[in-house]
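Reopening this ticket.

The earlier resolution said the output was attached, but the attachment link was broken on my side. Pasting everything inline this time so it's all in one place.
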Amino acid sequence: MFSKLLARDLAILGIAVLAWQVAAPVSAGAGAVSDLSGVLLGALAGAGAFLVHEWGHLLGALASRSVVQPAASLRSPFVFRFDSRSNSRGQFLVMSFAGFVATAAVVWAAYAVLPSELLASRVARGAVVFLAVLGIVLEVPLVIYALVSGRVPPLEAQQRATA
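Inline output:
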């Protein structure tokens, strides 16, 4: 299932890159078409940032030899489920921090690579920053719990944070 999820997400990212190359310059203009292209492309870039964040978590989980299960459906926005009963606190922390590193890389890229004169870039940056803040609000409390308690957050807490 991971290969299907990877194919799905690479297709989404490929479409986002292609759409950006074709339509992003339109968002530099004025008018409804420019505004619409900027908002749609920026939102698509934000979706791509979310996928990079999720794959960062999975790569961290796999690097720490965590027990994970792939998402049950291609319709799920998440790539995997972390087994809190089978994994250690250290594995949880590696998985968590890998997602933060992936998000940091996306935030850096949004500001270092995307041209500021495009509305699409500004919307993408807003989406990326929003997702980073959301990650902090939802995921940092779980990391703090793991650090303070010495345990992996229960599965129910993880599900509430990502639901």
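Reporter confirms the inline version is readable. The beta strands are 68-70, 80-82. Residues 32-63 form the longest helix (32 residues).
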